Amino acid sequence: MGHTIREKQKLLNRVRRIKGQVEAIERSLESERGCADVLQQITSCRGAMNGLLAVVLEDHIRNHLVDATTEDEHHGSATEQLIDVVHSYFK
Fold first, then answer.
1. Domain of residue 56, CATH code
2. Per its UniProt record, what Pfam families does this chain match (predicted)?
3. Confidence label for 85 from pLDDT (cuts 50, 70 and 90)
4. How much is the pTM?
C-alpha cells in the first residue's frame, strides 16, 4: 500500500481523531450520559470512519485497479464510475 505512505500523516491524524471520538463515547457511557448524546457521538464517529474508508478506498482504486482505456461519453472511465458508486454509498 505505497499510496498510504504518501498520505501517512493525514491518515494518522484522521485515525487519532477517530480514537478521540471513541474515547469520548466510552467516557459518556461511563458517566451515564443520555442516550441522545451517546447516539450523536456514535454517528459522528461512524461518519469519520466512513470518511477514512472512502479516502483509503479511493486511493486504492486509483492506484491499484486498471483504468479502462476507453471512456463512456456519459459516465467517464471505469475507475471514475466505481469511485462515484463508492461515494454514493457513503452519503
1. 1.20.58.1000
2. Trns_repr_metal
3. confident
4. 0.72
